[in-house]
Amino acid sequence: MLIVETGSGVADSDSYLSLVDARALATNYGITLPTDDVEAEVLLRNGYLGLLPMEPQLQGRRTHDIQTNIYPRAGVYKNCVAVDVDSIPNELKLAQLYQAEAIQNGAGTNTVTTGERLAGFNVQGVYSETYQDGSSASLNATVQGVQNQLYPLTKIGYQQSPCGGSGLGNGLSRENMGYLR
What we know:
Blueprint: H1 19-28, H2 37-49, E1 61-62, E2 73-74, E3 77-78, E4 81-82, H3 90-104, E5 118-122, E6 128-131, H4 144-150, H5 155-160
Antiparallel strand pairs: 1-2, 3-4, 5-6
């Protein structure tokens, strides 16, 4: 059985969604979970753990010493509105599902690699890479659905919002772009 983080800093939590809620949300977004409950729970746990590398990009800070993942957080703004410190945003739940889907479709979670060894690349209109035998692309591949969902909760998402940054509406100034004075 999944131990759901509700926003109150649940000890030993391993998901942002119950299995019932995960199945309902997944159905709404065309994500397929295994029909076997145990397999689906394992997949959701791995999806939950797969969000940890995103933490340095997020706004705010953890709110509990015992929490096992990136939320709940204090000091977060989403679309210029403060996120309650005891909430788990829906974007985070969807990110967990997209991460789980990527794992189900073959993304490695604990793969050992000998590292990237590029054999060649081609830039004729389209970038392509080939790797030497026994080598592969880097691990921790970016899951676009995860990136898209977490974007409003990230530091750059805040900076790019109307309330972030230097008052220019996009949060960027000439100093951010590396121009000399």
